[in-house]
Every structure is written in C-alpha cells, then in structure tokens.
Amino acid sequence: MIIDRLHEAVLNKGNVCVGLDTHYDYIPEGFKKKFNSPAEAILNYNISLIDALKDKCAIFKVQISYYEALGLEGLKVYAETLKYIRSNGMLAISDIKRGDIAKTAAQYAKAHFEGDFETDFITVNPYMGMDSIEPYEEYLKRGDKGIFPLIRTSNKGARDIQFEKLENGKAVFEHTGDQIYELGNKYLGACGYSSIGGVVGCTHEEESEAIRNRYKNMFFLIPGYGAQGGAATVVNKLLHKGNGGVVNSSRGILMAYKKYENGELNPIECAVKEVEDMRKVIGDWNE
Asked: What is the pTM of this model?
C-alpha cells in the first residue's frame, strides 16, 4: 500500500516533507533572471530543488493555490512539478484541501488521482461530514493512493472551531478525528499505519502527546514547523519511534538562501543545508 512506501521513505530518509508552495517572490532574483516568465522560473526552481533534495526528504508537498493563482500557465507548472517528482521515484502530496460531497467530491478524486494532476496523496477537509471522505475510498481500495484529512490544523484560528467542546466532552477535532481513525482501520498497510492519515499541526504543544496516543495507527502530515512557529519538541510528541509522520516546511526551505545572503552558498545549496539541519534537529529529539 502507498502508506508502506511512505513509511519506508521515512525510515531511509527522515521525516522532512519539502513544501513546494513556490511563490514567484520566494525565488532569488539571480535565479529569476535566467527565465522569461514567472511560470518558467517557478518550474525550474522546483526542478532544481527536487533534484537536490530527493535523497534527503521523504516526500514533497505541492500546494495548488500557488499555481492556480497564475492561471493556466501555473496549472501546467503544477502538473509538470508533480510529474517530475513522481518520475524520480518520489512520493507527492497534493495540498488541495477539498471538502465537498457526493458527485462533486468524486470529480475531485478523479481530477487528482488520475490524469494530468495525478498524485499519491491529497489533503481533504472532512468538516462537511464523513460523506466528504467516502468518494475517495474507490481509490484507497486500490492501495496506491492515500488521503490526509484535516484533524487539528496549525493556524491560530483552529481554536475558533476545532477546539470547541461538544456535549460528550470531546473537542470538535477529537470527534472528527475519531471517525476518520475508525474508517482508516479499513486501509492499514503492513507497516501498521493507515493510508487515511491526518493533518495535525505542531503549533499546539499541550495536547500533541494525547493525539498521538489516541490515534496510534494514523500517519500524520505535520505542518507548522519553522515559519509558523512549530518546534521539534512538539514534533517529537506527534511521532512514534521516529516514524508515523512527516514534517512539512515550505518557506523555510524555499527561502533558506536568505540566511546566507553573504553569498557563501547558492540558493539550492542553502535549501539542502536547511533540510539537513531540519533532519538533524528532528532526529536528535527522537533518539
């Protein structure tokens, strides 16, 4: 199953998920000047990063909004980026956060698990109800696709709804997570984790250990590290024996060159150093 491939990638290459949320403004000026358009610069920056980082990270995550904002040319870059990741034997998460139901959700599944935008995992928003998850099961049953529903996100606004208490004493995110976890037990891989994972941010430390204990078979996509303030100490509580999750960093890697503006390293070398440092910090906390 697809989750076994991801589990194995973490064993071999660590927990880093490289977020290709590639805004044109994030690309260094010297790199931009080599290309005739923002779309061309973004694609080539992505390709350079993939080439440099494919042996140092477990997976890449591509946030669709950065490409949609550029119109048709941007969507071509999105498709080519996914194709390039997967042609290099790497796994891709498409961060699309779809949250609709029935036939509409089935079309989202078809759009991102087949054709031009085919990927390995997608993020989905379950807060419309469990019937927003059901249309993806056709692909999960095949074993080569997975989903990461939102459970407890990394943004400050998560407390507006996800932390609210229900009459049964559960927080909304716990009520949601419990249903997703139960469904996920239908899609367990040999590694013991499910191809239905969960998005759990590392910016709220107080309940992170309880979340890991509550959802033992759930593989986490962990956003919020670095630029959003998430720390390795929290990541440690969300992992299990160094596995069970990948930790996303986007801007921290894409703009790592800003830490080394004295010109010692080129931008791609800076990204490599950032990933290596991130792996070491996370690894040290999980020894």
From this structure: 0.95
